Amino acid sequence: DRGGAVAWEYYFNFGGGSPPWTSGLSQGTAIQALARAADLLGEPAYRDVATRALGIFEQRPPTGVRVSTDAGAHYLIYSFAPRLRVLNGFLQSVIGLYDFSQLTGDARARALFAAGEAEARVDVPRYDTGAWSLYSLERESDLSYHNLVRDFLRNLCERLSTPVYCDTADRFTEYLSTPPVVSPVTRRIRTGRAANLRF
Predict the structure, then answer these.
(1) Cα distances (Å, whole numbers) of residue 162 to 109, 148, 165, 186
(2) Torsion of CA 167, 169, 172, 173, to 10 degrees
(3) Nearest partner of 113 among 46, 165, 58, 155, judged by Cα
């Protein structure tokens, strides 16, 4: 129980956060899995647990993961870090909410999805550098996170056929095989001593 909602919490220190903390990524994945299990096995108790977990998407950090925006809502990957906006975790939370709402017809989940998806449409282009993806607005993705966010964009494209997701997923795939263009930033150095060269 976390703020009256079911939460999947982490019980270790991470990135400056102390346990217990939660994540839109874990919540989204859990409700998605439970909705699928309820549908496949005909077990409504799984759906009921997932429904109780929706409250984390309605509460502000550090209890919940919701940060209200002009477009809708961003769901945090780390409930202890409200300013850190990680795209892959956010997209998976939106996908989880979509799948849960589709499988259950839950109006509350549909509204939470709509708020997150409206923000995702605004956010996704901001994470495209023109040559690679950003992990957060502060740093680039490594290769595995680049592939992960591309795959989440493909998942949204398959579900919604929305150009911003489909086109960005295609560009992120192209970036994997586009040769980098490297040029020097440092123009002058003093001879006779060690120097840093920036590219």
Answers:
(1) 20, 19, 6, 42
(2) -110
(3) 58
Residue 141 DSSP SS3: coil
> In this structure, what DSSP letter does residue 56 have?
G
pTM for the model stands at 0.90
Angle at which helices 44-53 and 24-41 cross, to 10°? 160
Q: Residues 6 or more apart from 26 whose CB is under 8 A from it? A: 8, 10
- CA geometry: angle 19, 20, 23, nearest 5 deg: 110
SS3 68: strand
Instruction: Please give the structure tokens belonging to residue 161.
Output: 């056929």
pLDDT per residue as tens digits for the range 80-93: 999 999 999 999 99
Burial of 3 per CB tally in 10 Å (0-12, 13-18, 19+):
middle
